[in-house]
Amino acid sequence: SQKIEQNSEALNIQEGKTATLTCNYTNYSPAYLQWYRQDPGRGPVFLLLIRENEKEKRKERLKVTFDTTLKQSLFHITASQPADSATYLCALASDYKLSFGAGTTVTVRA
Amino acid sequence: GAVVSQHPSRVICKSGTSVKIECRSLDFQATTMFWYRQFPKQSLMLMATSNEGSKATYEQGVEKDKFLINHASLTLSTLTVTSAHPEDSSFYICSARRPTSGGDETQYFGPGTRLLVL
Predict the structure, then answer these.
(1) Which residues contact B109 (CB under 8 A, 6 or more apart)?
(2) A92-105 pLDDT, tens per residue?
(3) Number of A–B residue contacts, CB under 8 Å
(4) Cis (ω within 30 of 0) for the bond into B8?
(5) Which residues on chain A are in Cβ contact (under 8 Å) with B112?
(6) Mean pLDDT across A22-45
(7) Which of A32, A42, A46 sits opposite B112 (nearest CB)?
(8) CA distances in angstroms from A15 to A29, A66, A69, A73, listed in the order given
(9) Which chain A residue shows the shortest CA-CA distance from B58?
(10) Residues 57-96 in A contacting B (C-alpha not used; CB under 8 Å)
(11) Which residue would you say has higher pLDDT here, A9 or B65?
């Protein structure tokens, strides 16, 4: 069966450190993978898209890697700030539909 | 960035009544919109794909007669929960598909509608 797993339900880190989130998937062949941020009671906000033929993509303090052999994506938040505290969702795209992981809630302590 | 709005943001209704939720893409035309449902601490689950000018495509296990979808224009899709029951209480989120500058497409989400059925 198809499965998307995000490493942990919650991640607590100190301000200034790097948060690393993992997204593993099985029985998918996604054309691309996306990461979203979701705040409580709000809809997801698009952050980054990485295609199957791309290894790495960056946007400001965010970095995403995509390894189709390992079937894994890593999402890094460098120089983290309390404002980065939120739930981060990975989503796999297939036939224009998105399938979401359950998310990892990141809390950045000042 | 692309903006998608939803209305209402929160609704409380009595069991047996129907509730309509609107989803609008404010600054782009969306031939395809999606409706999701999210229960607390769970992932977003796709309910249906809404195509402008044609019938919606429902995911397995989603009752099309209970969750009526209308996509009458390129900027508006509506979801009507008919004869709502307490188990329909959830967070309903829509999204609209839009091409990115790189030629891919991504989805931009609305802020969600919290439905509580008493």
Answers:
(1) A36, A43, A44, A45, A46, B4, B93, B94, B95
(2) 988 778 999 999 99
(3) 55
(4) yes
(5) 41-43
(6) 92
(7) A42
(8) 36, 26, 33, 23
(9) A97
(10) 89, 96
(11) B65
